[in-house]
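Table S4 entry, UDP-N-acetylmuramoylalanine--D-glutamate ligase.
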Amino acid sequence: MKNKEYFKDKTVLVLGLAVSGYNAALLLDRLGAEVIVNDFKDLNDNKEAQNLKNKGIEVISGGHPLDILDRPLDFIVKNPGIPYSNPLVKQALHKKIKIITEVELAYLISESPIIAITGTNGKTTTTMMIETLLNENRSKGRAYAVGNIGTPASLVAQESSEIDDLVMEVSSFQLMGVEKFHPSIAVITNIYSAHLDYHKTRDEYVNAKMTITENQTDSDCIVFNRDQEELTDLVTSTSEAMLVPFSRKKELKSGAYIKDEMIVFNGEDVMPTEKVLIPGEHNLENALAAVAVAKLKGMDNRDIQSAFEHFNGVKHRMQLVDTVSGRRFYNDSKATNSLATIHALEGFTDPVILVAGGLDRKESLDDLIPLLKEHVKAIVTFGETKQQMAEVARKADIETIIVADTVPEATRQAFETSENGDVILLSPACASWDQYGNFEERGNDFIQTVTEIDQSVKGGLST
């Protein structure tokens, strides 16, 4: 680890426990800081909080008392989900107490080069693609996917070395809390409007995203989506790093692009686009960004292609689960709104049997109609919106409409009505909270059902 002495004898408030806060507290304690942890929830029965107390770390829970700030704090490590409008955070800013997020902490101690990925859509898939590519046929060290993807960056940064790579997904929330954060390669997949409930204005959101390149120099690289004019203008006007564009729509003088169904980098054919197994034009964009990073890291084309040949997607995000009797099952449980389902449907040319439904947010789903008309041969609905989704399918003139109650029932019904060559796609267009704690639980239920269908088919064949 670098900068071990930087934290010694500092007084640090870790605001918000969660996974990243817990690991940040342990790290700071290990480095000799005096650590205080504060969480709005009552942590009296929380195992992690008890473990921190056992180590002598003070834990204050059940609210955010402002008198914590009366202590001589050197800085605050804030959970990115806590908004800057929080009274304690506002008071800390007024007192000019430095506020950082866990990714800044990870950067300060990391010996490993950092490849940082941000964007409105595609961050997680691109991060996992890059990790997969950089670990293909690797002889020294390894690449670790960390950050907003789920594994705390500071946890891995404690043990990784200069021969490793930290492939770090970073959100706008996290980037608002960085000061020295300096990735050797930054990736911006795209920028749309998002999280305006947190950021209040689009300008604040965009500025947070662009912080990813703020400390880069001309020895660093920024990989960006050339098909977005706004993003191109932002990058070219603000970044000092070497510009590495990617484009799905046009041939470029340099960077990654598609020509004659080939992914090309700096004029060199890298691999056929058909080697990208997860469907969707947006995933071709993610692949272009990942290929650009792999080439910047010196990877061989054969290794890049080999890595893509076994990359089946990120769990719950257009994940190819299995092929059973010629039917391909895709888990896109992360599609919690109609726009995400539209993007999913756009990725298929084969007939789709759509499994959709979930929490009723009292919102119209009629924007699905054009894509249902074009791509969907049958639909099986479930959850609170099952009847609403069925009505949308009727408006789209879908002939086969089946109403089920649960994901397992809907998945089995979809298989029973399917034919060889069909795609069975779980892309709910609704949140999961009517029947599940989160979209991961819903996706896992789908995966388990597909496994059971496969076992049943194989059992039938063997008798």
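The chain has a mean pLDDT of 94.
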